[in-house]
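Dear support,

I submitted the protein below through the web form. The confirmation email said the job was done, but the results page showed an empty box. After a refresh the structure appeared. I'm attaching both so you can tell me whether what I see now is the final result or a partial one.
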Amino acid sequence: MRNFDLAPLYRATVGFDQIADMMDRVLSSDMTQPTYPPYNIEKTADDAYRISIAVAGFAAGDLSVDVKDGALVVSAQKAEDDGERTFLHRGIATRAFERKFQLADHVRVTGASHADGMLHIDLVREVPEALKPRRIEIASGDAVEKDVVDAKAVN
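What the results page shows now:
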């Protein structure tokens, strides 16, 4: 695997720390990505998303959904079995896990639900009014002079 030095990027940019940190995380992470538990990410509306994670064998109390440092962290810890059951085949994995999803700017978690062995996490992107595109009206020369005259008449 190649190692990339991002130091020149840090020296030459101002205000792009988050992008550089994300690139550093991606490049330094192991090439093997965890596959447990399986999940889906779907777009439910223009600015709404849903992450669905298969959590068969886990109760709602075994699951934890947190938002830390711009990342959604989903983890599970199964309560210890009392050892009364004997399995001939154990195909449902109930091992502990932690899955992280990096959230984009202005994305927040609106809720989570657990039903039928699936954990659903709803997200919405809320762009502040100051960042939304807006149309600026172009005034003609006559309109500007008229406003100046009306302002003088009031004073």
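Response: this is the final, complete result; the empty box was a page-load delay. The mean pLDDT is 80.
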